[in-house]
Amino acid sequence: MRQSRTLIPTLKETPADADIASHQWLLRAGYIRQNFSGVYSFLPLGKKVLDKIEQVVREEMDKVGANEVLMPALQSADLWRESGRWDKMGPELMRLNDRHEREFVLGPTHEEVATSMIRDEVKSYKKLPLTLYQIQTKFRDERRPRFGLLRGREFIMKDAYSFHDSEQSLEESYQTMYQAYTQIFTRLGLNFRAVIADSGAMGGKDTHEFMALSQVGEDTIAFSDQSDYAANIEMAEVLDCYSFSEQEAKPLELVDTPNQKTMQQVADYLGHALDAGMKSLLYQIDDAFVLVVTRGDHEVNEIKLKNHFAASKVELADEKVSGELLQAGFGSLGPIDVPAEVKVVCDLAVRAMANVTCGANQDDKHYVNVNPKRDLVNVEYADLRFIKAGDPSPDGKGTIEFAEGIEIGQVFKLGSFYAEQLGATYLNDQGKSETMLMGCYGVGVSRTLAAIVEQHHDDKGIVWPVQVAPYQIHLLVLNSKKEEQVQLGEQIYHQLTSAGYDVLYDDRKERAGIKFADSDLIGIPYRVTVGKQADDGIVECKVRMTGEQSERHFKEIIPYLERSLNPN
């Protein structure tokens, strides 16, 4: 492609609203342009990278026997009501009405459509297992789009759905897809980890997220320093290996704590460490109220809380409700003498505490010398807190460390949820009707593009891995007024394209400095520069990733590229 005939609008300055590296470089190098908040156009370079990513995804999906389809982005609201997600998805669901006031959804995902299609077309176990996938634009009404392609209102995703007649078949497909995703992200040149995750609004139980490690990741990964264990921090189990105090239990005592509202204020006022107090928070979990108790230095993990109660909704109760139910405001709540209509659940760490402090359910008063075994009645214990750095790894190997990550893919075992809701059944080998089991597997294609840039850039621009670069070679003619340079540039361009190389040919009438700067910005892996030695057939070759430079006769370019692109 001649650069004079394509659209690559590079920018000298970083746009003010571009917060992270991928957003900055993709804008500056002319890969994307924002249409409005959370919605972007992919310009020619961006579209070529998307195509390269999609090709890798298609190749790996085809290897595992998945069938490519294309389902509509516009979906009937009736399907979403059947599945129960019309209300569950909340305001992020893009909803619209047609001229007849019929309700529709712009799909953020396609479980409902895929399930209804298989429900109508597959009637026998002989057609199972079956996996369908598509690569398509999705929609999500983000309250605050940010980070460029990482969190937008419109994005490109590969979503796949598998249908099964047994748990064993579902497990086999899950593991096959897990390995396919590992291969996809390896081929795309990403540093990533597969982590245990929460299925959220997708439903189902078993799931792994594939996370590209990044300093600007929106998720925190907890991983072992001595094994391959990794989990989203929301899902990392905390082992019940607390050491019980050997202190002799002291008499329970009620004390005044005037105007001491926070755990730290109470600890300072009473002169003890933060971990010598119990923190109590009142939650509304679906239609019930639950007092959740942790050690003072620990934080409640609401995902664990939601999963513990198999709840649809978990939120903190307001202080008015606290006053009505427990006769005390925030800062003075505690697990002693709690009314029967409020359930009490404590984190596992609480059980090992001794002679500690908790709120007394009286404003500005606390109990001291609380001993859970003696003083807490009708309570249950569960793992309800966030894991912390230095905690034992859940697999028993090493301790936990943290890293940030960008979610680029996820695999789910959906089980029978959508099939039951939408009536997807089949006849088994006995002629009896059975409910299908399902798996769901997603790759964020546009997010993956941004994640690659987050990991592959320097202070001059993007540094694309060869396998996803928009072009393999950037050919520069430095002085378009010099006939010998133009002639050699044209000769090399035809030589390379005839040999099957993907070349961006900078034939613009621009200064050499602009061409070099744009080339570094764009980040194509290999650069061939035709300059002052054109009369002798000598060109400069440069590797973008390493900065390695060498001078070669133009007839040596193809052997050089063959060795570089195919080192084995």
TrEMBL record:
Gene Ontology biological process terms, A to Z: prolyl-tRNA aminoacylation
EC number(s) reported in the record: 6.1.1.15
MF annotations from Gene Ontology: aminoacyl-tRNA deacylase activity; ATP binding; catalytic activity, acting on a protein; proline-tRNA ligase activity; transferase activity
Domain of life: Bacteria
Pfam families attached to this UniProt entry: HGTP_anticodon (PF03129), tRNA-synt_2b (PF00587), tRNA_edit (PF04073)
Entry annotated with the keyword DNA-binding: no
Reactions accelerated catalytically: tRNA(Pro) + L-proline + ATP = L-prolyl-tRNA(Pro) + AMP + diphosphate
Self-association and partners: Homodimer.
Family the UniProt entry places it in: Belongs to the class-II aminoacyl-tRNA synthetase family. ProS type 1 subfamily.
Protein name per the record: Proline--tRNA ligase
Name of the coding gene: proS
